[in-house]
């Protein structure tokens, strides 16, 4: 059974940093591209970042470019999101999601971790 | 800036058919955008329904179908059931490893 479990969320002050993790199991992690998608309270989904299976290709939404860094450790079956210079508008539930191998769409999703940016 | 448009809300009777759409603020949606659809109930993670315009994700019943209708992507639910009451999101692939979600449609079954 595919499982994606996010962790690392919490309350942080504006300007602060946080590192999210996504632990994967039930599939061959090293062969899948991955994404972070977020959802502000009461709002819709927003794609945040993408990383290819080998980490050779990385993309960010304009809203987080220069502040967030996506990475992965295939030996540990883990995905990360380092978030710096956090703003109020970064408050959201952050989901990790696999990408279909043959299509640019999201396949499996984790349950999400809540990040709250507030003073 | 690219805006993906969806109906804010929609209502369908149990057993009825409803078509939700996904458009672009400027231009037409085609299969080149690989439209995909996701279902989300409050407090839960999204569930993938349709990808690459019309391919159902594993385990998704065939009463969910995807298509291109005119200049928009469409999700059709045939024989709506009470537990189809959810938020539905489409997302378009913009190329160069970026995606844009629509604002979501809140579907009520009553």
What do you see in this structure?
- The complex is a heterodimer of chains A (119) and B (110).
- With 119 residues, chain A is mainly beta.
- Chain A is 0% helix and 51% strand.
- Chain A contains no helices and 11 strands.
- The model of chain A has no long low-confidence stretch (mean pLDDT 97).
- With 110 residues, chain B is an all-beta fold.
- Chain B has no helices and 11 strands.
- In chain B, strands 2, 4, 5, 6, 9, 10 and 11 form a 7-stranded mixed β-sheet that branches. A 4-stranded antiparallel β-sheet of chain B has the order 1-3-8-7, with no helix packed on it.
- The interface between A and B is medium-sized, with 24 and 25 residues.
Which helices and strands appear, and what pairs or packs with what?
The complex is a heterodimer of chains A (119) and B (110).
Chain A (H helix, E strand, L loop, with lengths): L2 E5 L2 E3 L5 E8 L8 E6 L5 E7 L6 E3 L7 E6 L4 E6 L8 E8 L6 E4 L3 E5 L2
Parallel strand pairs in A: 2-11
Antiparallel strand pairs in A: 1-3, 3-8, 4-5, 4-9, 5-6, 7-8, 9-10, 9-11
Chain B lengths: L3 E3 L2 E4 L4 E8 L11 E5 L6 E5 L3 E2 L7 E6 L2 E7 L8 E9 L2 E4 L3 E5 L1
Parallel strand pairs in B: 2-11
Antiparallel strand pairs in B: 1-3, 3-8, 4-5, 4-9, 5-6, 7-8, 9-10, 9-11
């Amino acid at each position: 059974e595919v499982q994606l479990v996010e962790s690392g969320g919490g309350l942080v002050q504006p300007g602060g940093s946080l590192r999210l993790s996504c632990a994967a199991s039930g599939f061959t992690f090293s062969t899948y591209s991955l994404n972070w998608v977020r959802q502000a309270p009461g709002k819709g989904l927003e794609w945040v970042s993408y990383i290819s299976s080998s980490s050779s290709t990385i993309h960010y939404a304009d809203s987080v470019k220069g502040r967030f860094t996506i990475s992965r450790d295939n030996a540990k079956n883990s995905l990360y999101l380092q978030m710096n210079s956090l703003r109020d508008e970064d408050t959201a539930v952050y989901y990790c999601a696999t990408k279909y191998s043959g299509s640019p769409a999201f396949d499996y999703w984790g349950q999400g971790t809540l990040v709250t940016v507030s003073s | 800036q690219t805006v993906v448009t969806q109906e804010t809300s929609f209502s369908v009777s149990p057993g009825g058919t409803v078509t939700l759409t996904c458009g672009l603020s400027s231009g037409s949606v085609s299969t080149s955008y690989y439209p995909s659809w996701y279902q989300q109930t409050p407090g839960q993670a999204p569930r993938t329904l349709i990808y690459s315009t019309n391919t159902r994700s594993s385990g998704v019943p065939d009463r969910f179908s995807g298509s291109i209708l005119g200049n928009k992507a469409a999700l059709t639910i045939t024989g709506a059931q009470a537990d189809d009451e959810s938020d539905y999101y489409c997302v378009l692939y913009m190329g160069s490893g970026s995606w844009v979600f629509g604002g979501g449609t809140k579907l009520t079954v009553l």
